């Protein structure tokens, strides 16, 4: 189902009588001014094929090969459909590329988390004499030793497993952040495309009215010159004023469309010269998703759930830190040639003598953060569900309002134009009344169009807050 505002009803509603009178007067004037034989120049003007000024093959200004308008049209970017805009935005968004980089960075950190710390190389000289006859000598005193050794902090397998699990959960949270960015980009792109599509329709309505105002002005002038008594100069002045207003509204609508296309190009990251296709029907499947499916497809809920997983994994790591890591060391010690060499083995064990105020406080802190994450998820879930219910209600109400306006307002506006034109032709109504009826008809069609735009914005916000499983699995 696509939105249309009933613009053809305007075309049927406009008066034909003034235009016919203008055509008759212009034809009579042309016949009176045209001589019986104007010679070769007139023949050339009457035959476009022999007239260099009108023959596209001989007139450079109208030749298709070099016509500036044709060249500009060939270089203009193709119009964007909604799906093309969404695809371009997903492929070119810098914010999404940044989110992908964050996911990759978190994945690198996850690999590192499960590794042992690097060993430490230790070297030195022990018991070097600084006084006496053997001062600053290495091989003379029996206590002097050259030492080289290795020190390794040993982190238990369980600790490394828990740290890896925490890093994996953080990577999952970064993926959820990417999905949130993807949903935001799709929402904003769809909204921008809809704004451009409706701005294009509004411009078309304004241009139709302006074109008919031009026709009416020409007909009114012709009738006045032909000696028509109804309205006279006042009708001409009124038609000129209304034509100026209509043209100004066309310029404003054209600028609104240009602004909407520029806003769309911000998301597609490509120039957008036009949009193609009708806006989708305001029907969303999101409101019918069961809670379990919504939790797996709504990025905000996915991120809130991952926050819980990260906090719980962090709590498990803090609990494991209550047991200190031991550090082992082995060293080889070389003495003078007259003495035996030695090997030393040692271990360093931190003493958690204040566990209640240090390690236990860390565990309590992480546990409270996990409680915060769980409560935050509950609040986020309520907010998401409330937003979905509200947007669904707005969509339902909007569809009903659009149907009512199409069934009642637009036909009444068209009938008013017909009655005003009939009264003007019969001499019982004024040209101002006829123009007022046409403006009222345009206002009615624009009212329906504006309502469609608002409903479509709500639809985009509802429909694109969920990431399709195919897109989520592809990342």
TrEMBL record:
Region feature Disordered, mapped onto this chain: 39-65
An annotated Gene Ontology molecular function: efflux transmembrane transporter activity
InterPro entries the record matches: MdtP/NodT-like (IPR010131), OMP_efflux (IPR003423), TAT_signal (IPR006311)
SUPFAM superfamilies: Outer membrane efflux proteins (OEP) (SSF56954)
Annotated Pfam families: OEP (PF02321)
Keyword vocabulary terms for this entry: Signal
Signal sequence annotation: 1-32
Family: Belongs to the outer membrane factor (OMF) (TC 1.B.17) family.
Name recorded for this polypeptide: TolC family protein
UniProt organism field: Burkholderia gladioli (Pseudomonas marginata)
